[in-house]
From TrEMBL:
Its main location: membrane. PROSITE patterns: PROKAR_LIPOPROTEIN (PS51257). InterPro entries: Glycosyl_transferase_4. The lineage of its organism: unclassified sequences, metagenomes, ecological metagenomes. This is Uncharacterized protein. Keywords: Cell membrane, Membrane, Transferase, Transmembrane, Transmembrane helix. It is found in: Cell membrane. GO terms for cellular component: plasma membrane. GO terms for molecular function: phosphotransferase activity, for other substituted phosphate groups. The chain crosses the membrane at residues 6-29, 50-72, 78-96, 137-156, 168-186. One of its GO terms (biological process) is cell wall organization. It is a multi-pass membrane protein.
Length: 208
């Protein structure tokens, strides 16, 4: 089914509504889910408990988009769908880590498992070559492609965990990335090829 204006407006209204509700009831949601970043006066220097609910609106938008896709097939590219599903899985790994605590080895192992399943499901997601402008040449890594792709995902995930300790930094970086995506693929947004994945990216930019 073609991505229609009705679905566009539905997702937009839902995303704005969820963002407003979660923002208003952040403390209550945090208490109910017991999602709090408690100070330890060593690595965590804040004096009060900090609610860990900032990503809830984004993940609810992702889930709602996937549910709509079941009925309306708004995401036609299997690679985009795999990216969204794997993102959801990685989010739940982070949720479990925030709520119950996971050892670094367990967390890395689970994220690696998600990455491997995702890239094995679609060879188009595997980083098999990269370009170095200094040499003006492509370098192929066929035998280490899967390992390199998983390593890239782990590095990206860990980098966000590191910068997330400073208020607004991770959100700011993500906004820059998302706006860059919108700019690079603006032709798709302005044409009939606008699909569920592209609009999901727009929603993230708006709600961040």
């Amino acid at each position: 089914m073609e991505f229609s204006k009705t679905i566009f407006i539905t997702l937009l209204i839902f995303s704005c509504f969820v963002t407003i509700i979660v923002s208003i009831y952040t403390q209550q949601i945090s208490n109910y889910l017991n999602l709090k970043d408690k100070p330890d006066f060593k690595r965590k220097l804040h004096k009060k408990n900090v609610p860990l609910t900032g990503s809830i609106p984004l993940i609810l938008i992702l889930i709602f988009t996937l549910l709509l896709n079941i009925f309306f097939e708004i995401i036609t590219d299997i690679d985009y769908l795999l990216i969204l599903i794997s993102s959801l899985c990685i989010y739940f790994i982070g949720f479990i880590d925030d709520k119950f605590g996971l050892t670094p080895i367990k967390k890395i192992s689970l994220i690696s498992l998600v990455a491997i399943v995702t890239i094995v499901s679609s060879k188009d997601l595997i980083v098999s070559k990269f370009y170095i402008s200094f040499y003006d040449a492509f370098f192929y890594i066929d035998y280490f492609a899967i390992f390199f792709t998983v390593l890239c995902l782990l590095t990206l995930t860990n980098s966000f965990n590191l910068i997330d300790g400073i208020n607004g930094l991770a959100t700011g970086v993500l906004i820059i990335w998302l706006l860059s995506y919108i700019f690079m693929f603006s032709n798709s947004f302005n044409s009939s090829e606008l699909n569920g994945f592209n609009f999901f990216i727009i929603l993230l930019s708006i709600n961040l």
